[in-house]
């Protein structure tokens, strides 16, 4: 299969003619990768079980890992769900369109091939102008997990998608770099108490301000057991991971804690460098001066979590390109957007965290 790439240079002046071919591919059961405000998604008709199967095949994704159905309008949710709980309606009104996925009780129209065999369906309405217009033109809800090989860092540029999906899908819509850089927040509103299944740009603090009580699923801080079905993407399997072995180093000390982390990372890095390995170090602008060896990459200013989130996956993919053997990373705050950053890093490290 030859993968066609089309480029949209102006997100604010999109002509329907630019996306009509992509929309037709989606309607006819094919695969199209496209940008959203979070990461690039790999789209297929969410109501077509065979199309959903193609997504799992292209990604090498386990079939019990649910897909997220993307819609262009809030009204499009009604056909996909058996009912909309009050908490779901409040969150839709507060944060849609935007980086928030909601898990509802599914209707009979949604195939189990899309939901990973579950009686629930995950739905999102993206705010990205290309994504929203493409979904509307396709005329069907679009299942769209991240457009990467399963387990790898999510793609934040079309080039990342091309690296993983060239020859496996019909088309890539290149809309330039994404905005946020981390996948959407996922909240399960199908039960009695709303539960956050994956952190993202819509933070737990924002959710609780809107709803009051919101639980945090244990999968956010630790791996699911092998016999547990994941309720949403990114909960069960190793995700976001570079090819190199990644370790997080964190300190509980507020004073001089960052310096201790840097000293420990340099100690670990030197051991691997002396043994002949290629070593990557992930830090911030504030701590960059501490690191004198290895391939050092700063994610930006620690105080600007949006920048850290935006750069994370791109840096992990760069280390793949540079064929590093080991990566040592600083840790980040677990509050606000930091919770999502640490969730991705911890899963990428396979929960390999050194606490000082």
Provide keyphrases for this structure.
356 residues, alpha/beta, DHBP synthase, Rossmann fold, 2 domains, eleven-stranded mixed β-sheet, five-stranded parallel β-sheet, 10 helices, 16 strands
| Overall SS class | alpha/beta
DSSP helix fraction:
25-40%
CATH superfamily of the largest domain: DHBP synthase
How does the major sheet shape up? 11 strands, mixed
What's the arrangement of strands in the largest beta sheet?
Answer: 1-8-2-3-7-4-6-5-9-10-11
E-strand count: 16
Function: Required for the formation of a threonylcarbamoyl group on adenosine at position 37 (t(6)A37) in tRNAs that read codons beginning with adenine.
Keywords: ATP-binding, Cytoplasm, Nucleotide-binding, Nucleotidyltransferase, Transferase, tRNA processing
Family: Belongs to the SUA5 family.
InterPro entries: DHBP_synth_RibB-like_a/b_dom, Sua5-like_dom, Sua5/YwlC_C, Sua5_C, T(6)A37_SUA5, TC-AMP_synthase_SUA5
